[in-house]
Amino acid sequence: MYPEFKNFHQYFTEKALVAQKDFEKLLPYFSVEKYPKGHTLLSKGGVNKHIYFVEEGLLRFYTKDENGKEFILHFAPENWWLTDRNNLCSNEPSEFFIDAYEETSVVLLNHDFIEKATEISHEFRTFHEHILQRHIKQLYRRINLLISTPAKECYIEFLKTYPNITQRVPQWMIASYLGITPEAVSRIRKELASK
Amino acid sequence: MYPEFKNFHQYFTEKALVAQKDFEKLLPYFSVEKYPKGHTLLSKGGVNKHIYFVEEGLLRFYTKDENGKEFILHFAPENWWLTDRNNLCSNEPSEFFIDAYEETSVVLLNHDFIEKATEISHEFRTFHEHILQRHIKQLYRRINLLISTPAKECYIEFLKTYPNITQRVPQWMIASYLGITPEAVSRIRKELASK
DNA sequence: ATAATTTCTTGATCTACATCAATGTGCAGA
DNA sequence: TCTGCACATTGATGTAGATCAAGAAATTAT
Predict the structure, then answer these.
(1) CA dist., res. A92 & res. A48, Å (int)
(2) Mutate which of A148, A172, A174, A178 to test chain B, going by most B C-beta atoms within 10 A?
(3) Nearest protein residue to D9's C1' (by CA)?
(4) Quick check: pTM over 0.85?
(5) Taking CB atoms and an 8 Å cut-off, how many pairs form between chains A and B?
(6) Domain-embedded: residue B23
(7) Of A63, A88, A140, the CB nearest to B133
(8) Strand C contact at CB of residue B182, distance < 7 A
(9) Do residues A21 and A81 lie in contact, with contact meaning Cβ atoms separated by under 8 Å?
């Protein structure tokens, strides 16, 4: 069923507990897109009101400093959400970049979808609120890690948050996510391996 | 008007653009509390489903590590919101602490208030969504700062976020918020003063 | 006011991680 | 298969900020 958005469907019915009949009502309100490796979905200064559900592949959300150095705020592999939430409500230009690191297919939603879905399905409404709250909590956890913990433990936490992503992205992206250098990641790994 | 929650009222009518008649309908749905300096509103392991609007005073939101060292995630002076959002939806015990660093009076809301307010006032609904999104954006900015920027600039950004808080809290709390030591804050200040 | 406690400053050393540089490794294209 | 090129490793050295320690200043308690 729904080969193009199997994960999305499964997520809605099994995680968000949205009834199949409600899901069917929502079919007209979203679309599926496929992006090649390296495709840019949002650049600094742009406006992008989409909410992405990653069906397959890997997106990354990041900033660049004056020298073009990238800082990754968030990876989004299969079954993750990604959006520049600021953009949703306002028309302010974004400070962030989003691009596809692998060939990626996404389910494309916008604010109307959320409105419609919360109207149709009480389950979705509750679930949507829940994921927003959980997202905020995760961000606080990450801040807490960054201000309280040395790089080695941040790396260990990273592995827990994104199991198997290590094999899919170059080391400098992990370093960029952790706020350290690729060399430091290499040494941390060496040390962890020796145990 | 409303001497006990003047700021709250002003915030609702002027910032959230809630009509006076709608505000009046909400009067039965919240209460005002006053806490003495040092009062603990939430401890790790506890559950606390309140949303606080700080009418007067100063709350802080923080964690502690195994050695009891505190890490401040968030200050909330007048006109700020504070809540352990995870707690709102679930009954999981909290990982965080909240306490009053000054004598503080808060407007106490809970999830029902938000439901009611979004039902009564479309303006509030939009505004509430907006502040959630903005909150997430702020958290990403902070993460971005932490992974990309040396302590001095983090300190400068802190001053922008919380003008005048410097005079109200000890230096170690600022250090704790920035993830550095009080000595480092002292040196950063000295350096900034010499310009 | 005096004592006690907390906070702030400053200096001396230490350490985690950065930077720079060289070498090694695996994969993509001719 | 050889040639690049991006990526990973390792070593040598530098530096921001930590830690430790002592004294000054400010606050709070007696």
Answers:
(1) 10
(2) A148
(3) A186
(4) yes
(5) 86
(6) yes
(7) A88
(8) yes
(9) no
Number of domains in chain A: 2
Decide if A179 and B130 are in contact by the 8 Å CB cutoff. no
Question: Minimal Cα–Cα distance from B139 to chain A, Å?
Answer: 6
- In this structure, the answer to whether residues A55 and A105 fall within a common structural domain is yes
Last residue of a domain, which of A98, A130, A162? A130
Q: What CATH number does residue B32 fall under?
A: 2.60.120.10
B159 and B127: one domain? no
**Residue A57 domain-assigned?**
yes
In a domain, A159, yes or no: yes
User: What are the CA-CA distances from residue B145 to residues A72, A82, B4, B14 (Å)?
Assistant: 12, 20, 37, 31
With CB atoms and an 8 Å threshold, state whether A146 touches B148: no
> Does the nearest atom of strand C lie within 7 Å of B183's Cβ?
yes
**Residue of chain A whose Cα is closest to the Cα of B70:** A148
Residue among A91, A137, A138, A158 with most chain B CBs within 10 A, to mutate: A137
Q: Do A140 and B179 touch (CB under 8 A)?
A: no
* Strands of the sheet with B104-109, listed across from one edge: B31-35, B104-109, B51-56, B81-82
B149: CB within 7 A of chain C nucleic strand: no
* B112 and B163 in a common domain: no
Q: Does residue A101 share a domain with residue A23?
A: yes
Residue numbers of the domain that contains A191: 149-195
* C9 C1' to B155 CA distance, Å: 18
Question: Which pLDDT tens digits describe chain A residue by residue (195 residues)?
Answer: 899 999 999 999 999 999 999 999 999 999 999 999 999 999 999 988 899 999 999 999 999 998 889 999 999 999 999 998 766 667 789 999 999 999 999 999 998 999 999 999 999 999 998 899 899 999 999 999 999 999 999 999 999 999 989 999 999 999 999 999 999 999 999 999 986
